[in-house]
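Dear colleagues,

I hope this message finds you well. In preparation for our joint manuscript, I am sending the KCD14 protein (Grallaria varia) sequence together with its predicted structure, so that both groups work from identical material. I would be grateful if you could confirm receipt.
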Amino acid sequence: MSISSEHKPLRKQVTSSLHTLSPIVELNVGGEMYTTTLSTLKKHPGSKLAEMFTGQPKLRTDSEGRFFIDRPGTYFKYILEYLRSNQVPTQCIQDVYKEALFYDIEPLIKQLEDSPQIFGELVARKQFLARVPNYSENIELMIRIARAEAVASRQSSVIVCVVRTEEDSARCQDALNSLDMDKKSVVKFGPWKAVPSISDLVDCIQMDVEAKGYKISVQPHVAEKGFRIKSQDFFYKFLFTWW
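The corresponding structure tokens are as follows:
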């Protein structure tokens, strides 16, 4: 026996209206539920978020008929807050910035980039690190060495050589050549042409390794007798603790 339309479940009726782009839209963003208007979502026509709801919906629906966006739902409330009131978030700036980039909301992206947190990261720190040759590759090399040394150990260490000038680089290489050691185990950073000091770069290295989830500490490395230079000026020991 067929069921008349007036006896169909309410949720099915809502789903039907959503597919015809009802002015009221229900969203499931990474498991967080939101209700807003179509005009709010399409406030910035050139954004990826607006394109999701332009013409035929380009999103899947969940079991309850809500449009599903596979992104962290916690931060979507800040995106909605901006779309509704033009209020720039003051919390979770780094995470909201990532979401603004994903949804391609250009005005919000620009305003967030003016915040101290994003400005300092993108304009100051990232621009500095871009001038340090092979910085990202050296971070990965450090981690590979530390993991290789961690077998049946609670801790493993990586020796890092940090040199700011070509002259210092030559001096460190000369010192390494004078010693009977495995030079492949020493990761070299620098030289670079920028204002930040050696200690600034060491801080960046520690910050970026910790951002990958590793527990580390750092201290100047005092070499054994035979070094031709004051080793603690250039060499640092990064200690990884595994358990």
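For the figure legend, we might mention the following. The radius of gyration is 27 Å. The beta strands are 24-29, 32-37, 67-69, 155-162, 186-189, 215-220, 235-241.

With kind regards,
E.M.
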